[in-house]
Amino acid sequence: MDAYLTSGGLPGILRAWPPATPALDFIREECADPASPLFGVPESVLLSEFPAPDQARRVLEAIGSGDRTTATIAATAGGREGPLKSGSLSPLLRRLAEEKQVLSVDQPLSTQPGKPALYRVADHNLRMYLGVLRAAADHSRRGRPDLAFRLVQRRWASLRGRAVKPVVRDALTIAAASGELPWPEVETVGGWWNRRFAPEVDLVGADRAPVARQVAFVGSIKWLGTPFDAHDLATLRRDAAQVPGFDTEASGLAVVSLSGVRSGAEGADLVWGADDVIAAWR
Question: Please, is 98 exposed, middle or buried when counting C-beta atoms within 10 Å of its C-beta (0-12, 13-18, 19+)?
Fold first, then answer.
């Protein structure tokens, strides 16, 4: 999973990756080489698709650095005159998502229409590059691989935790189509949030998107070095109750945790680990 989130499956990077090497160990070694394909491959993709630092590239870089809503993207990608105007930003976002297919657009999933839409860089390697590897490459070119890797270490947990969400949602959608989930009515898996992002729910399984007839389950993804615990379960139950369409009597709870579930927190109807996520693709 870490190799996929880092490389995006790109052969130019995978050919340089020694078998069975953990992602952070591989990144540490590559930080010592300014010409590493880990840096060079996404940079060449960026230059071929966006050769000039125009508005489209600034919008992409804003999203890659963590801006997800139109308001924050407009503010970051704007210039001295202020945020990008909606008349300029909206067609740019459509072109990047539909024509270039470099962006993905996520809508909150529930039984009611929701806003705002959230934008993310579709390719995992390009997202990781814009999020941290480009800045790390700058340190590497200055002859400071130690600073390059330290920067990656600082941002790794948050970048990985956000990047894994669409992968987990896709895996659950595949498992649902194969009849491997306890909710046969599920045809799509997304997330849910309100305008305040309080809460922001990782997983919602429903019969259709973006406006469902029925919410079958709500869930949480914990992709950290600590197990899912009783506090996490209590938070999930509290947040699930706010998702339109969640029924405490009929809807279930799902947990996807990298480090398992701690004793005393076994209240979910479905518990997955990393092996389950990978198995869904086989």
Answer: exposed
Q: What digits encode the pLDDT tens for the residues 252-281?
A: 999 999 999 998 888 899 999 999 999 999
Question: Crossing angle, helix 86-94 and helix 55-64, to 10 degrees?
Answer: 80
Residue 8: both structure tokens together: 């995006």
- What CA–CA distance (Å, rounded) separates 28 from 7? 14
Residues 132 and 170 in one domain: no
Global model pTM greater than 0.70: yes
What are residue 252's DSSP bridge partners? 217
The answer to whether the CB of 131 falls within 8 A of the CB of 66 is: yes
Report the run of H or E that residue 118 belongs to, with start and end: strand 118-121
184 belongs to a structural domain: yes
Domain of residue 56, residue span: 2-102+123-159
For residue 112, being part of any structural domain is answered with no
